[in-house]
Amino acid sequence: MNSQDMSIVSLVLHASWVVQLVMLLLLGVSVASWAAIFRKLFALKRVKALNEDFERDFWSGTSLNDLYASAAQNAKSAGPMERIFASGMREHQKLRERRITDPGTLLDGARRAMRASFQREMDVVESSLSFLGSVASVSPYVGLFGTVWGIMHAFTGFAGMEQVTLATVAPGIAEALVATALGLFAAIPAVIAYNRFARDIDRVATHQETFIEEFSNILQRNLGAHPGSPSGH
């Protein structure tokens, strides 16, 4: 390679096959990482919007039975909070069908159903987060491996030279350093996105746990006043 030709494309093309393989891997990981970032960004935005819409309907004064009927009808398009609510109401009604009238048993059954639904919903919301965390932590080391290998390859090529100058060393070193640059290029967006999404997911989880407690309090009041049916709140 011409020592004056130091463009990125030339550096990549003249790198050893191991370094090129590392670069290709990091480029693929970077593309997958950005795809996961945009998917998660839109998914969290949709979760927040659906939760806010349901919570607005929930506190509008609509009866619990009407809300449950609507949630059952729109199960596929419902948000996490609405599905958590539907799980609690479904378990409550199943216990009532079994002629269970003890308020403590009814409330405990609804709470357990909502907690189980909450865990399922959070598993979905947290999907792809571990991938971003892995990209953020591993990519720099993969890039560093490519750099070390490239430097070793470059120096073995200089072994037979009688005179080594900066002009002869620089291209080989630069080729190797491109791998580290690609590793950072993949890792930095993943780190930023991981921290941002982790914070947003924690807020979603706290919001949904608060709703479970509020809905449980409403059920408790209704069961105390009307053991037969939680029709209002």
Automatic annotation (TrEMBL):
Its main location: membrane. One of its GO terms (biological process) is cell division. The chain crosses the membrane at residues 12-38, 129-152, 172-194. Residues 79-207 form the MotA/TolQ/ExbB proton channel domain. It is found in: Cell inner membrane; Cell membrane. It is a multi-pass membrane protein. It comes from the Bacteria. Pfam families: MotA_ExbB (PF01618). Belongs to the ExbB/TolQ family. The Tol-Pal system is composed of five core proteins: the inner membrane proteins TolA, TolQ and TolR, the periplasmic protein TolB and the outer membrane protein Pal. They form a network linking the inner and outer membranes and the peptidoglycan layer. Part of the Tol-Pal system, which plays a role in outer membrane invagination during cell division and is important for maintaining outer membrane integrity. This is Tol-Pal system protein TolQ. The gene is tolQ.
